Amino acid sequence: MPFTLPSFVIALLLLQVPLFGQSETTGRLSGGVFDADNEPLTGVVVSLNPGNHQTLTDLSGTFSFPELTPGSYVVQAYLLGHKPLRKAVAVAAGAQDLRLVLEADAMLLEEISVVGQSVTTALETEGFAMRALELEEEENSSVQVTDLLDRTSGIRIQQNGGMGSRINYNINGLSGNAIRIFIDGIPMESYGPSFSLQSLPASMIERIEVYKGVVPVELAGDALGGAINVVLKKTLERNALRASYSYGSFNTHQSAVSGNFYDPKSGFTVNGSAFYNASDNDYEVWGNQVYTTDPTTGDITYVRARRFHDRYRSGGFNARAGITNRSWADELLVGGVYSSLDQQIQHGATMESVYGSRKAYQQTQLVNLSYKDNSFLSDKLSLSAFSSYSNLDRRIVDTAAYIYDWDGQRKEKLDANDNVIGYYEYISGAEAGTPTLQTSNERVYVGRATAGYRISERHDLTANVLHTYFTRDSEDPLRHVDIRDLEDTRFSSRSIVGLGYAYRSTDNRLKLSAFYKYFNQGVRIVEYRKESATAEVELNRVNRSVRADGFGVTAAYEVFPNVLVQTSAERSFRLPVPQELFGNLAENLEPNYGLQPERSKNLNLGVTLGTYRFGNHETRFQVNAFIRDTEDKIKRNVREDDTDETTEFINDDSYISKGFDADLFYSFAGKLDITSSVSVFNSLFNTPFDEDGLAYDWYRDRERNAPFFTANGNVRYRKQDLIQKGSRASVSANVGYVHWFYRDWESLGGRGKDIIPTQLVCDVGLLYTFPGERITLALDGRNIFDRQVFDNYALQKPGRAFYAKINFTIL
């Protein structure tokens, strides 16, 4: 592993902005505003007199008054729905902190229909095309996080099958690893593949931030098409313990527990969470890829069959301990993560290659260290740093050559009297190619540092450094003895530096930002090959590096009250990830060491109307239009032969995607919520000629196997004091629509071209919270009309399913 300290040295150098602007004869008053539950309050008007100083609290509830003349002042804090606070303070030379707590005003809450700006609203008005999803109600249901994202405008989640299957994220026409996933701003790749959005229960999540296209510099990474940042619940300053358990169709179990201990005197904090997921995934499948074959005549019989070799098990925990809420650090925590995965593999790249014995195993161990301080060396300076080292072990077992059909049985060899005399086998010796017991060890180091400097109340600077280093060693006892003990290692390093500037006007109506990012990637492979027993051992050595830079701007302007116009534009790059470069046997992926970075120019323009309130009625409308001009798009290759066992990632020339997404929200008296969304992301192949000058037949065709029109509608009704006084209940229904789309290029072929059919899926849910809010029961029905649902190359997803979940709040 290379010496990685320079990443942090660079970050600290970036932090060394002038800290001497404040004279020793002046004072600075800063602090935070919180509610009675110790949650930070955003958009609080904080004023200081004499002097008529005034500011608003930011997303973390903090405020600051720099360069004050020492003396006596009166600070006032005001937020609609809360009791105003007035407090006398004495300001001396130097810096001092102040903590303010606002109490909710029951009378105001009943009478006032205009409320203060929430964290999610504040995020959605910064100029980025983004949505912030709060999970306050959904956390108690058995709906997975990926399902909630799939209901969000502009996002399409494509999944290969049931629980644990591969997922592809599509945001406004860009997909795959162009969409980066973060947990609290940390790249999810550092947590290992078995710790994913599928495994995270909603009860552990506070909100999900979805960025469409342009991504803020604070999320250090090379996201090209957007980013999903999962913000976990923070209970660092109070004791808490919660647990949940869900059971449902296909023998599916999901359980989770999370807790926190905090000692206010010492600041000692311990928190952690654990999960376990399991499913047999034995749902029914049917269609033109599900059949049995007569071994004698070759005749095909199409059948309805249950998946019989798709069991999935995963589990893990995340624990941290350290010090929080001290004058020298808001957080200093050391942690560890463990996760494991045990998965049967049902088929190859398509459902026509049926497996009956292939399996994959994974295990991840990770240690991390995190530090945060919003007043690092100066009240104007904030610093957060994170470092982790993970060790991932993979194992593939594929040694049986028996041929299976969708009836779940091995194909039998019969004699003339129909007696079984043996079984048909693959010539290759295994189900997905040559026999393998390959084990691979992946080690990933991640170092990240983010600094923020407040020049004044209207000007902010941000610096961010991210460095990752990846190595993979592989060994297979079934490989030829001549190369088994030779070095076979892959290396990949990636460094991204970001600089950002933000401006907000005095009245907070205008917000501007600009950023710059520098990308650097190195790839090195030392690989030995032996094509046959008689062939010579061949050395394949690759050593290359990539450097690029990108930049972008955002703007948001409140033209009139409740009329907000936002725009963002960028030129950015996306570096290929190790799985794309080096392949992955568990997912039937071959390596492609020659992959080039994907690059794109993105433009967004959006308008938000509302929130408008008329008595008991509340409504809001959002629309965002976009253009994505992408070159060297990294995509999974589509093989011409459907029976191919494997595929690989390729650079697929250029695409241009244009479209829009729109959201409409309506609420009545806080009891009835109706939301609807429409998304059009029309991605067109935009390269007229290949490298030999020959015209592409599919020039300007829609991107194959990619949906281009989706819609969602959701209704939720709440009822207080149902059955029991003090209880809360809600019933909800969601309808998701996906218009049919071509599996291949629409210009190829004549009649009878393969399509992924139109899909209309309805889900329902029921929640009941008992008095005291310690126990919540949930019932969920998925795809209740049992529609046949596809995403990727006609890989069928589960049909009708029902789940029940119980949530306990112990502390």
From TrEMBL:
Pfam families: CarboxypepD_reg, Plug, TonB_dep_Rec_b-barrel. Residues 319-784 form the TonB-dependent receptor-like beta-barrel domain. It is found in: Cell outer membrane. InterPro entries: Beta-barrel_TonB, Beta-barrel_TonB_sf, CarboxyPept-like_regulatory, Plug_dom, Plug_dom_sf, TonB-dep_rcpt-like. Residues 141-227 form the TonB-dependent receptor plug domain. Gene3D superfamilies: Carboxypeptidase-like, regulatory domain, TonB-dependent receptor, beta-barrel domain, TonB-dependent receptor, plug domain. Belongs to the TonB-dependent receptor family. This is Outer membrane receptor protein involved in Fe transport. It comes from Neolewinella xylanilytica.
